[in-house]
Amino acid sequence: MSFVGTLALTGLGSLIYKYDTNQIFEKHPNVELSIKEYYSKVYKKEAKQLSERYISSLVNFFPGVLDGYSLAYPFRGCHELLKNLPEYSMISLWMLTGYLLMFSLTGFAYWATITPMYIALFGILGPPGILIVILHSFIHINMLTMMYMRMAHYNNKLVMKYLNVHGVPKSFTKIPVKYYIPFFSTYYWLYEFPSKLIKYTCGTIVLLVLMTFSTIPLFGPLFFNIVISPVITRIYVSKYLRLRGVNNIQRYEHLYENFGSYTAFGLSCAIIESIPIVSGFALCSNTLAAVMWGIKREELN
């Protein structure tokens, strides 16, 4: 029940954020294409982009991971949170309360349904086995809780608070464009629906495999967080990119253009967020880190 509930709430949070009203909704340019143009301007173009994304990810992966620059920012976010704690205290307290509430709800379901199975397996080891079960349950519940908390986007106000604390002018923020595809359009049925079906089917399979690995006592949840580290970064950074008026198509490309950096940033986040309770504070500090990281990258570019 805790697995299913977490996945359902995570998906709901993603949908709410995806169709947030603080965007300008425009039709995707490809909606206006004629069927004759689909081969050259849709299928061929998308195949080329897919290949370019793959190559770009490989090329920038190791330089981005090994430069140490992106890896350090989540820890700088911790410093920022502690340095200006009075300014961030109310929002952080609200987020921590939300984390503790979800941790408790997830924990009740977990301990009622999954923990008994672990006890049956590890109880034969005696007290050490029970200790492993208790420690793993807290770590695993924390992992499931953070899956939802990241996608719930309770930390949006913290992004604006950072800008206010550091005197960033209002002109810095822009309204992003959200390109949508009408359900009854030709483009939806000839490309969007089939591609999304393949994407979400593969994504579901990968997620289920990773969720299975996460059940490995003690090390499974950390392994799960490390593997999804680029996704963790994408969730945090999306708030900043939206704030800068970057549309949904450009945000998607941004991941592949900076895959190594996304992995490094997310790796630090994953390690910090693997610690129960500390994760509630990390949700705040990593949000601040993503804004700081985004601003610095703009300055360097």
TrEMBL record:
Matching InterPro entries: Spore_wall_assembly (IPR052786)
Please give the superkingdom of this protein's source. Eukaryota
Q: Where are the transmembrane segments?
A: 91-112, 118-141, 262-295
According to its UniProt entry, this protein's organism is Henningerozyma blattae (strain ATCC 34711 / CBS 6284 / DSM 70876 / NBRC 10599 / NRRL Y-10934 / UCD 77-7) (Yeast)
Keywords tagged on the record: Membrane, Transmembrane, Transmembrane helix
Q: Which GO terms describe its biological process?
A: ascospore wall assembly
Q: Can you name a GO cellular component term?
A: lipid droplet
- Gene name on record? TBLA0A04710
User: By what name is this protein known?
Assistant: Uncharacterized protein
Q: Which PANTHER family does the entry mention?
A: OUTER SPORE WALL PROTEIN LDS1
